[in-house]
Structure formats: C-alpha cells, structure tokens
Design brief:
single chain; 573 residues; alpha/beta; 6-stranded parallel sheet; 23 helices; globular
C-alpha cells in the first residue's frame, strides 16, 4: 500500500478510533492537519472561541459519554492554553487525547516562532506526554494514546506533532492492537483481600461506605446500589461521588468533606469501619489528616496503586477496578446489623439538616429546588465557586440525572464549555449549566459555539456581584476585608465602599445574551423561578440564559476551615 502523510494518518486514526467530534483551533503548525480534516466527513470539527474553552468542551464530552475526548491546537500559545484543561482532566480522571502542533524538528531548541516545550510543561499534569520524532512511530503512538487515556485510571494524554513529521510520507497502516510492556492496568480484585474486607465489615458496629468518583468512572452505580441495599450499611459520598445512589435512597447520608452535611461528616468521624471506594482522600475530604476517621479501620478500593495509603494509611488495600471489585463483593456480602448506628446518623441529620432560609426572597436553595422540580432527567454542569457547593448540597440526582463538575483542580471557567461538550455528546438530553457571575465571565465567549450549533443549553447564572467563595472566607476568617472579590467595583468606589450607591453591574447579562441572539430573563424572586425554567425548556435550537440575582451574604454552610478536623464544622454565621 502506498505511503501517506502523517496528517492523513492522523485523520485515518480518528476514524478507526470512532471519534465523532474533534474540538480544534487552527494555527500555523497545525494547518496541514486541519486541511486533511476538511477532506473527510467522519469526524466533525468543532471550532471554539478559545483553546481553554476547547479542552473543557472535550472534557465535558468525555465525562458525559464515557468516550475519549479529543482536541487539536497549534504550537506555542495554542498548546499552553490547554494546560489548565489538561490538569483539570488529570485530577478528575477524564480520558482525553490532546494533539498539539509543533515547529519542525530541526527548529526545536532554537527559540523558533511559537515554539514551546509543551511535553516538558505537561509531563507532571497528564498521564502521558510525547513528541513524535519519527514518522514510522506515529500510528503506534496515536493508538497507544487512546489506549492509555481510556484504561486503568483514565486521564489526559498529549501528543506533540512536529510539522515536518506530519508532512512526511510514511506507512499508511494504523495498528489494531496495543502492547506496552511497561503499562499493564490491573482490573481484577484480589479475592483474599476482598474476603478480609468482608469479615471486617461483618464485625463492625458502626460501618460506613465512602464513595468517590471512581464508582462513576467504572460504571458501577447499579452494582454499588445492590451492595448498599444488601448490606444495609449507610453511605456518604465525596462531591465527585454524588449521584452514585438516588437522592432518595434510604442508605444515603449525603456528601462529606469541607462543605459536607453535618451527619455525613459526623458519621466519618465516629465510624469504626470506613469502606472507601474510588476516592483519593484529598485534603478537602479529610480535613486535618491526623483526625480523619480516628476511630475507624479503613478499607480502600482504587484502581490506582499510587492513590492507596498516599494520604491516609489504610488497613486493607485493594487495587482493582471499582466495578470488578463491587461485583465480586456482591457474591459474598450479607446484611449487616447496624440499626442503632443508622438511627444515630439520622439523629445527627435531624439536629442540623441542610437548608437555607427559604422564602420569597430568592436563595440558591430556591433555585436548585426549581431545577429539581423542572428537570426529571438531564446533565447538570457547574462552574466552580459557591454555586458549585450549593449544587452539591441541594441538587437531587438519580440514574437519569448526572452531575459534571471540576473537582480536584476547581477550575473557574469550566462550566459553560463543559456543558457545550456534554450537549454535543448527548443531543437528546437536557443540559443545565449552573455558573457564578465570576466563572461565567472567564469563558462566556463560548456562547457563540452554543448558538452556532443550535445547542439548547439552559444557562443559570447565580449573580451575587462577587467572587463568592473567596468572599465567604474573607467574611469568616479575614475580618470582612473584601480584597479583590467585588465584581461590581468601579474606580469611583475606591475609598467609598458602603458610603456610596453601588454602580451598575458590568456586564449586563441580558444585553450580552442578546448580542449572541440568546433569549434571557432576570429572576429576582422565588415566585419567578418556575416560569423561567418553563421558558428555557421551550427553546429547542438555542441556549436560554437565566440570571438569578442573589444576596452576596449567602454562605455555603456547613463549612470546615482548611486544616481543621471534619468535626469542627461552622454551622451558622
């Protein structure tokens, strides 16, 4: 068979890997690849308005479908604009393959125009990064990239493509298999370790399941539901694990961690056996490390060997895919007697239930109750900030409703482009994007993509004219010195805050929406919430923007101050 250029082989590889969308932004050293994309019709090119929007869109597509998200940019600033998105995906175990154009090999190291060592930059924030230096290796490297990204603990892979390699004629064959000697993911669980864990579970008086995002990634929601129902053991989740059980499941206590509910945090602190599945035990979950689950023996199932006993020393480590392990557990587990323990947890929940002062004045809980009432199914995507935490507290999830959020990195600007990617991947499902006014402005230009592709995303902006999460910390811990968190500040405010009338908010989100030909509404009272969502649902070929005006004094509570123990919760202010 005749040889083909590297660019043609890349496009062929996209077809072989069943890539339906590639999120790409053109530039000098990627133009040959874009030219080949123009000549084919199996992979649709999606043009964002910024490379950061591009990679978050690929991320949202991947999280919502379970498929590999794919993106393509040019060298230099095109590549460096991917860095935040690569790190976001790496923290949250999202499978991405990122292609970056690069200067020709003979120019590398000479400070050529738009030359950046993107492999060196990204090596520590992705699963694998490589520069293709020989045309003969291109097909193998691409095949390996898709395999590495989607297996084991999923994550982003970066392939740097020098222009001369992509122009060069070489083999046209694309491999149909992968054999990487140094990379052999383990999926099966050690039965002996599982049986040891079950014996410990049966002896426990106060057992507790703690479930993280790994259960979602492995597709083990149904299997875990069976495990929880059979054992009768109460369940807490991390933010990334939210939705593993239906919101109304009697076993579910709630989310735990820095902004977890009182009952969940108390349960972790008082349990005598903590059975953790698919979570890394990061600081937002553990609080003060040496006071985390101080009375418990800990069992930890995770597919990533490096995650086990890295932060919290565990008594029974089990390296395995969550679904493989849970399926095996379901063959052996029996009901666990722990009724008095569950009653104790229920009492904690009764003493300090989650909730805000719900009245005719609009509150975040009002808004999220409106989402619960008006959407029986769909994909809810958040940005990062107070609205994100309120969403994890008050949004009710079920097998038909899924939550996507930036967990490990906490990336502002994630929400809107990730919602766009999710809508591309799920054209028949409602997608609701919940943002703060700060995060929304970081990537608001991606509205153009949603309009151009007729994506009926419901965009909810909780506008408190503040960078609310930081402002909350300033209110509680910094003597109300609100430095750099007022998004309503003008030059005329300097030295006069509180003594003069606040100037008009910039931008006017209704006018901004109109500029993108997007219908919108501003909501200022609880009575208007349902009507706004009804209008949004009526739009089937374009987004609808709802601006909710909320009080900047609203706080996310409970809250555990960074470095404090989970039991040291701030419950009111």
């Amino acid at each position: 068979m005749r040889g083909i250029t590297g660019s043609k082989l890349l496009v062929k590889a996209l077809k072989e890997e069943n890539v339906e969308y590639i999120f790409g932004y053109p530039g000098g050293y990627a133009t040959d690849i874009f030219d080949e994309l123009y000549k084919q019709d199996h992979t649709q090119l999606i043009l964002p308005r910024h490379e950061q929007g591009l990679i978050h869109a690929a991320d949202g597509y991947a999280r919502s479908t379970g498929k590999v998200g794919v993106c393509l940019v040019t060298s230099g600033p095109g590549a460096t604009n991917l860095v935040t998105g690569i790190s976001t995906a790496n923290y949250d175990s999202v499978p991405l393959v990122c292609f970056t154009g690069q200067v020709p090999l003979h120019l590398m190291g000479n400070d050529a125009f738009q030359e950046v060592d993107i492999v060196g930059i990204c090596r520590n924030i992705c699963k694998y990064a490589v520069t293709v230096r020989n045309r003969e290796d291109l097909g193998r490297i691409i095949k390996e990239a898709f395999y590495i990204a989607s297996t084991g603990r999923p994550g982003p892979v970066l392939i740097d493509l020098p222009q001369n390699v992509m122009k060069e004629i070489g083999p046209s064959e694309y491999p149909d298999s992968v054999n990487i000697r140094s990379y052999k993911p383990n999926y099966s669980a050690h039965v002996g370790q599982l049986k040891k864990a079950i014996r410990m579970l049966e002896k426990a008086k106060r057992p507790l399941f703690m479930v993280g995002g790994g259960v979602h990634i492995s597709g083990a929601e149904e299997a875990f539901g069976k495990l929880a129902a059979t054992t009768g053991v109460p369940v807490v989740t991390t933010i990334m694990g939210k939705g593993v059980l239906d919101a109304d499941d009697p076993q579910l206590v709630g989310c735990m961690g820095m902004h977890g509910c009182y009952a969940a945090n108390k349960a972790v602190s008082e349990c005598d056996l903590l059975f953790s599945i698919g979570t890394r035990f990061n600081d937002r979950i553990t609080g003060k490390l040496y006071e985390f689950a101080p009375k418990a023996q800990i069992i930890h199932i995770d597919i990533d060997t490096a995650s086990i006993s890295r932060n919290v020393t565990v008594h029974v480590p089990i390296v395995a895919d969550a679904k493989e392990a849970i399926d095996k557990l379901n063959e052996y587990v029996k009901p666990i007697e722990c009724e008095s323990w569950k009653e104790r947890i229920a009492q904690w929940d009764k003493e300090y239930p989650l909730g805000m002062n719900v009245n005719n004045e609009i509150t975040p809980q009002n808004i999220l109750d409106g989402v619960n009432r008006n959407f029986d199914e769909g994909i809810i995507v958040t940005d990062v900030g107070q609205h994100q935490m309120w969403t994890t507290q008050f949004l009710k999830l079920s097998p038909r409703k899924k939550l996507l959020t930036s967990g490990g990195l906490g990336t502002m600007g994630f929400g809107l482009p990730a919602a766009i990617g999710a809508q591309f991947g799920n054209p028949d499902k409602p997608v609701i994007c919940i943002c703060g006014d700060g995060g929304f402005q970081m990537t608001e230009q991606e509205l153009a993509v949603a309009v151009a592709w007729e994506l009926p995303i419901t965009i909810c902006i909780m506008n408190n004219a503040s960078l609310g999460m930081v402002r909350q910390m300033q209110k509680l811990f910094y003597g109300k010195r609100y430095s750099g968190t007022c998004l309503n500040m003008h030059k005329s405010c300097l030295g006069n805050c509180g003594a003069c009338e606040c100037p008009p908010y910039i931008p006017d989100f209704q006018k901004l929406a109109a500029a993108y030909d997007i219908p919108s509404v501003k909501v200022t009272s609880a009575a208007e919430i349902d009507e706004a969502f009804v209008k949004a649902k009526a739009e089937t070929k374009r987004p609808f923007l709802i601006e909710f005006i909320i009080d900047k004094e609203n706080l996310v509570l409970p809250m555990v101050r960074g470095g404090d123990a989970l039991e040291d919760m701030i419950l009111e202010c």
